[in-house]
Design goal:
Layout lengths: L1 E5 L28 H9 L8 E6 L3 H9 L6 E5 L5 H16 L4 E6 L7 H16 L3 E6 L10 E7 L4 E7 L4 H10 L2 E11 H11 L1 H7 L12 H4 L7 H6 L5 E5 L10 H7 L8 E3 L2 E4 L5 E4 L4 E4 L4 E5 L4 E5 L6 H10 L10 E4 L2 E9 L2 E8 L3 E2 L2 E3 L3 E9 L2 E5 L2 E5 L4 E4 L5 E5 L5 E9 L8 E4 L6
Length: about 450
């Protein structure tokens, strides 16, 4: 068996903690591991590390590789140059597996942002699905509803199979009255977004029901390269696997997911799964409260004080605060979309941004300048790079920095500084055992992260 982890996602519903460049699958929401890392560990119950393929957007690739690199050597990560929804991603990852491993295995596809704690029951469900997949079905895993949820899609089942049900139809997110009827009927399940199939079954059904995707997929040869070229991939339609194939195929079966499951799609869902105090509150971080009830407060960088709240959500980050009623948390995505339309960077990135070599924090920004604190972990180094639009000035705060500037090496201790002229080829490195921190002052226009030309990079980003 092989596994495909869908590790894209924009991070809109858990804003402001989740951002476009650091979406929820990369966050540690309820444990020491991120949702992505927990997903990888779950699949390791079913298959070896090297049979787990992750596919993500190119803007998340370095973070995905960094997180998975903590769990396994040389994680296999495919990079989509542009977001095209789940159907093109799943089809190409399936083709990658068939070509690279010269086999026609059963493949399980899982989102990277679900919370499942009981891995043993998950494994037993997978084993049931495997039998149906071997018989030529595309298997979807359904959740037995226990209340009339309007935020999930539903799957209507028909005749009983040996270890599941034949699927009659997929249903869009219903209104409340319809959801109540689905719950009463008993043959409707929540759509978990987890699928399983033989590779050849999926590709054959793609030929039948999504010929445009199949035709473009034939342009890719993964025996020659693991790259997904933009020119080819950009021709793909942007469509989900449900719309492209699942809703059209007559080979769909459902297996009831036996484990716990939560897609953590809103701050309400985070509240629901979190331990609560005697007043029904969930407080995370530095929170001081008096007389609040049934509320959720998340403080990431500051003291947050609350008095007399009821059924309220407050989320504080370095650069943004969300405050809303608990029953309005699904509307957070509208705030996110508004910020995106306004080109407000608070939808895109945190002030603190993690990289494979460490992290940086933006501490000041204005017309023509930007100031960061850069933290480089021991044994790590930034890429050899240059910039077309900005010069930089570095001041060493702590540790010992090795700076390579136009071919010359400089060893700088705290208090020393260096100027990086426009278009100069340079690198910041830490070959020592202590962390280093520097202040970086950028001057120029535009001051954007995309203004990087890489020449060498130990993390494969050239």
């Amino acid at each position: 068996m092989f596994g495909i982890i869908l590790a894209g996602g924009s991070g809109s519903r858990l804003w402001p903690l989740s951002r476009e460049l650091y979406p929820k699958q990369l966050l540690n929401l309820n444990s020491e591991k991120s949702l992505l890392q927990s997903t990888f560990e779950r699949l390791k119950c079913c298959m070896p590390d090297n049979k787990i393929i992750s596919i993500t957007n190119t803007k998340h690739t370095s973070n995905v590789k960094m997180q998975l690199g903590e769990l396994t050597d040389n994680p296999v990560v495919l990079s989509e140059p542009v977001a095209k929804n789940t159907a093109p991603a799943i089809v190409l990852a399936t083709k990658f597996i068939m070509q690279k491993f010269d086999s026609d295995p059963v493949i399980i596809v899982v989102p990277s942002d679900h919370l499942i704690k009981d891995n043993q029951k998950f494994l037993s469900t997978v084993k049931k699905g495997e039998k149906l997949a071997e018989d030529g079905y595309i298997v979807t895993f359904g959740i037995q509803p226990n209340y009339p949820e309007t935020g999930y899609g539903y799957i209507n089942t028909d005749e009983k199979l040996e270890s599941g049900y034949k699927v009659k139809k997929f249903v869009e997110k219903p209104d409340f009255e319809t959801a109540k009827q689905y719950l009463k009927d008993g043959n409707y399940f929540w759509n978990s977004g987890i699928f399983m199939f033989k590779a050849s079954t999926l590709l054959n059904e793609t030929e039948k029901h999504a010929a445009d995707i199949a035709k473009i997929a034939n342009e890719f040869d993964f025996t020659q390269s693991e790259e997904i070229p933009f020119v080819n991939f950009d021709k793909m339609p942007s469509i989900s696997i449900d719309y492209a194939i699942m809703e059209k195929s007559d080979k769909i079966a459902l297996v009831k997911l036996e484990s716990d499951w939560n897609d953590l799609g809103s701050w309400q869902s985070i509240y629901d799964i979190s331990p609560k105090d005697e007043n029904g509150n969930v407080f995370i971080g530095h929170v001081l409260d008096k007389d609040s009830k049934n509320s959720f407060v998340y403080a990431s960088s500051k003291l947050v004080t609350t008095i007399g709240l009821e059924d309220t959500v407050i989320v504080e980050t370095e650069d943004a605060i969300l405050a809303c009623k608990k029953d309005k948390t699904q509307d957070v995505k509208h705030i996110y979309e508004t910020l995106k339309k306004q080109n407000d960077n608070t939808h895109l990135v945190h002030k603190t941004v993690y990289r494979p070599w460490g992290f940086y924090t933006v501490i000041a920004q204005g017309q023509g300048f930007l100031t960061k604190i850069i933290h480089v972990n021991p044994g790590q180094k930034l890429s050899v790079q240059s910039h077309n639009f900005r010069s930089e000035h570095w001041v060493i705060l702590s540790g010992t920095a090795k700076v390579v500037l136009e071919g010359k090496e400089l060893i700088l201790s705290p208090g020393h500084s260096v100027d990086i002229p426009l278009k100069a080829i340079h690198s910041l490195q830490n070959p020592y055992k202590e962390d280093i921190e520097i202040i970086e002052v950028q001057k120029g226009d535009p001051l954007i992260e995309e203004d990087i030309i890489r020449y060498e990079d130990m993390y494969g980003r050239v």
